[in-house]
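Lab notebook: predicted structure, single chain.

Context: the supervisor wants predicted structures on file for every construct in the current expression panel, including those that have not yet been purified. This is the next one on the list. No modifications to the sequence; it matches the entry in the shared construct table.
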Amino acid sequence: MKKKIILSYLTLAGLGWLAISDYFFKYAMTTYKKKPESKELSGRDALYRDKLGFKEFEKQEWILRVDSNISLYANYLDNHSKKTTILLHGFMSDGDSMAGFAKMFYDLGYNVLLPDARAHGRSSGEYIGYGWVEKDDILRWIKKAIGYTGDDTQIVVMGQSMGGATAMMVSGLKLPKQVKAFIEDCGYSSVKEEVDYQAGNLFGLPKVIRKPLIKTMSGINRIENGFFLKRASSVKQLRKNTRPFLFIHGGKDHFVPTEMVYQNYAATNAPKFLWVAPLAGHALSYPMYKNKYRQVIKAFLKKYIH
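Prediction complete. Output recorded below exactly as produced.
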C-alpha cells in the first residue's frame, strides 16, 4: 500500500515537473502570452526622425516559401546599389523595428532587406528558434538578394539582440562569396546560457532548480522545435567564421549581460572589432550614442565594402 502511495506521489511530481517545464518552453520558445513590440513612434525617441524617414521609403514585399507550413516575409528598400545589408530584428519584434538602422544604411548607399523572423511579424511559424533555426532562413534571404542584385553584389548581415545572435550563427555557415562582413549588436553567446540567465534574472530561480528545468525544457524543444538548446551556440558558430566581424554591446546591458560579448569576440579568428557603449542598456547603444555608433559602423564598412 505504501509503495503504491509513494509511486502515486512520484508520478504526480513527475507530471507536475513536466507541466512546469512545458510552461517555460512555451514562455521562451513560442509567442505564448506575449504582445508584439509597439510600433507607435515617439518624439522622445532619439531615432524618431530616422524611423519617420523609413516610413516614407517605397518598399517591396518579398516572400519566401520554406515549406507548406512556413512562409517568410520581408521588406526590401531598393537603393539601386550593388551593396546590400540584411537587418535582423530582436525577440518579439519584426523587420520594421530596425527602421533606424535601415535609414542609416540606406543613406550610406545600401539596399536594405528587413526580414520578419519565423513566428514574428507577417512570417508564419509556431516556434521561435533564437537564431538557430533562423540562420538557415537568412541563408535563403542572402541567396534571394544575390539573385535580385546580381553576382557582383556585396552583402553585410547585421542583427540586434536575437538578430545579433542570428547573425553570429549565420557566420558559421558555408556562405556565398558575396557575403563580405557581419555586425552584431547585443547578441547572446548561446541560447542555453541566455535562457539560464533569464530564468535567474526574471524568475529568480536558483541554479539547483534551473539546471534540471532547462535540461527538461531542452528535451521538449528538441521534440517540438528540432534542437537541443546547447546546440544553438553563437560561440561555436563564430569559431567557423572567416569574415570580418564587428561586435557592439551596451556596457550596462542587464538583459543580455555585457560579458557575453567578450565570449563572442574571443571566439572568432577572423578580422574583428569590438565597441562597448559605456552606459547603454540592452539595445540602446545606437540611440544613446548615435554619432559614435554611426562612426564605428562607417569605419568598419569602409575597410571591407567598396
